[in-house]
Amino acid sequence: MFHNNKQISKQLLIIISLIIISFLVGCGAQEEKRSQTIDDEGIIVGFSQIGAESAWRTCNTRSVQEAAAERGVQLVYDNAEQKQENQIKALRSFIAYQVDVIVFVPIVTDGWDNVLQEARDAGIPVLVTDRKIDVADPSLYAGFIGTDSLKEGRNAGLFLLDKFKNERERFDKTGDHINIVELFGTEGSSVALGRAEGFREVLEEHPEFKIVYSKSGDFLRSKGYELAVEFLEMYDDIDVIYSHNDGMTLGAIEAMEERGIIPGTDIVIVTIDAQQAAIDALREGKVNCVIECNPKTGPEIIKLAEKLAAGESIPRLQYVHEEVFYETDDLSLIEPRGY
């Protein structure tokens, strides 16, 4: 009896061993198949975009998609529709899919620590683009590439210093403030925070300037219109509108024109993005200064993703080139924006 049991146990051990070997071979075959796919079709990049709320955002997405196609990179794309919870789900799906690199535009600065730790545990490098994040351990992501929102805000402030030079010189005698309305971007986003900080940094030693109104319009044209309706009813002595993006600016212009206010003349307007509609408004004299926020970052993003997939290091911080367009420029020289 004992002998028979021993024989049965031995047979079971052999069967279990064969199952384990088969499983391991299968896993190896799957990994080999995945490696072959990467070799044949390029690396796999998971790209999480915050939405499609503007022509700028659509251009930014298209730039990444086109660059990936040109480089033979497989792009797994997800639109978060302006919700952080959707974006976190997308990042987790990229991890489950075992992409080679994750690229994402963070909706807000906070709340990414856990999912980025999951990406690290899975051995997947993460590239942050367009908007910055704030995490306890900065090494959770490989680097950032995008625009310099602080510089954009500073450029807006510098334009106003020059534009209102005469009024500033008379301020000691008149005491008349230059009243500013600020159309703030999405609350908690790094670009809105940077554009606000850079702007204030330039003007803080110039008491002649006074921000009388600052509210978030979420970078949306419809909300820019709503805010303009509100502040135009609240104040009758607005000198400047400083808008964090062209969408909100265009909405505000619409509200101004409905009330017979001449944009660019009755109220000086400074806007950020430089989409075609804003450049057209600059040419028409409805806007006085347009600060570029370059959306065409796709080629650089994909190059950095390829380096990360190859195990190479990348710059921790990389800004893209941007310009400023003034009402005094030869505006005929500005090429079509493409967004």
Overview of this protein structure:
- This protein has 339 residues and is α/β, with parallel strands linked by helices.
- It has eleven helices and twelve strands.
- The strands form two sheets. Strands 2-1-3-4-5-11 form a six-stranded parallel sheet, with helices on both faces.
- Helix 9 links the parallel strand 8 (240-243) and strand 9.
- Mean pLDDT is 90; it is low at 1-40.
Q: What is the H-and-E element order? A: HEHEHEHEEHHEHEHEHEHEHEE
Distance between the termini: 83 Å
Structural class: alpha/beta
DSSP summary, beta strand count: 12
Rg over CA atoms: 27 Å
Tally of helical runs: 11
Strand content: 15-25%
User: What is the strand arrangement across the widest sheet?
Assistant: 2-1-3-4-5-11
Principal-axes geometry comes out as elongated
Compute the average pLDDT: 90
Oligomer: single chain
Major β-sheet profile:
6 strands, parallel
Helix content: 40-55%
Poorly predicted runs: 1-40
How are the SSEs ordered, and which strands pair?
Layout: H1 2-41, E1 44-49, H2 55-71, E2 74-79, H3 84-97, E3 101-104, H4 113-121, E4 126-129, E5 143-146, H5 149-163, H6 165-174, E6 178-184, H7 190-203, E7 209-216, H8 221-234, E8 240-243, H9 246-258, E9 268-273, H10 276-283, E10 289-292, H11 298-309, E11 317-319, E12 324-326
Helix pairs in contact: 2-11, 3-4, 5-7, 8-9
Structural key phrases:
single chain, 339 residues, alpha/beta, six-stranded parallel sheet, six-stranded mixed sheet, 11 helices, 12 strands, 17% strand, disordered N terminus
